[in-house]
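C-alpha cells incoming
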C-alpha cells in the first residue's frame, strides 16, 4: 500500500528547557529535502549521544495518533503540527501494528528501513505541558519508530512512502516496543531480539543484557 507524505519536517536546536537546547520541534519544509545516511539535510539533534545517527536517521510518529491525544489532553495547538511529536514524516494509515523491524520503504527517491521503535522521553511532556504522556505511550504502544537509510535520495511533501519489502514479519514495531520498552518480553523473545539482524545494535544489546 502507498501512503502519501503530507509533510516533511526538520528542526533546529533552540532553547527548550532553561538553557538546554533541543530540536524536538519539527517544522514542515518546502520543496525537496535530501535524505542522507544520517537523516534529512538539514535536520539537527541537540544531544547526539541519544538522538540521531544512522540507526535513528528518520523518525515517523503516526498522524493517526493525534486524534487519540486530543481525547487525552484536549485540542492542544501542537497537535495541529505535523511534526508535533518530533516526527520527520507526516503520514496517515500506518501505525506500529502495521510495520515490522526490517521493513523497507521507498521514500521519494530514497530507500529506508525500519530499525527500532522510539523510546519516549520527558521532552514530549515538556513540549505539550502535560504530565503522564510518557506513561500513556508505554501503556498504549503509541511510540512511533525510526528508519535507517539504505539508499540516499530526496523527498518532498506529496511523495509516496511505499513498502517494498517485509522484514521480520513476526516482530512488529508494537511487539518490539512491548518487549523491550514496556518490559513484557519472555526469555524466548529476548533471545530472538538479541539476534535480530535488522534491529538496531543498541536494542539488540539491551535484549542480550536482559537475558543474563
Amino acid at each position: 500500500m502507498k501512503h502519501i507524505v503530507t509533510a516533511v519536517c526538520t528542526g533546529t536546536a533552540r532553547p527548550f528547557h532553561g538553557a538546554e537546547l533541543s530540536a524536538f520541534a519539527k517544522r514542515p519544509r518546502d520543496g525537496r529535502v535530501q535524505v542522507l545516511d544520517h537523516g534529512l539535510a538539514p535536520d539537527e539533534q541537540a544531544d547526539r549521544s541519544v538522538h540521531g545517527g544512522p540507526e535513528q536517521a528518520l523518525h515517523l510518529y503516526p498522524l493517526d495518533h493525534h486524534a487519540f491525544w486530543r481525547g487525552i489532553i484536549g485540542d492542544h495547538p501542537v497537535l495541529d503540527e505535523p511534526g508535533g511529536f518530533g516526527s520527520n514524516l507526516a503520514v496517515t494509515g500506518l501505525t506500529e501494528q502495521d510495520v515490522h523491524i526490517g521493513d523497507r520503504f521507498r521514500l521519494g527517491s530514497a530507500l529506508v528501513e525500519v530499525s527500532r521503535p522510539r523510546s519516549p522521553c520527558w521532552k514530549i511532556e515538556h513540549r505539550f505541558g502535560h504530565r503522564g504522556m510518557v506513561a500513556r505511550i508505554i501503556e498504549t504502544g503509541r511510540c512511533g519508530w525510526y528508519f535507517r537509510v539504505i539508499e540516499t535520495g530526496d523527498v518532498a511533501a506529496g511523495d509516496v512512502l511505499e513498502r517494498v519489502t517485509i522484514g521480520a514479519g513476526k516482530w512488529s514495531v508494537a511487539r518490539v516496543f512491548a518487549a523491550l520498552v514496556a518490559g513484557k518480553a519472555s526469555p524466548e523473545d529476548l533471545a530472538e531480539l538479541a539476534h535480530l539482524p535488522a534491529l538496531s545494535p543498541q536494542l539488540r544489546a539491551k535484549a542480550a543484557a536482559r537475558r543474563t
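note: The longest helix spans residues 201-211.
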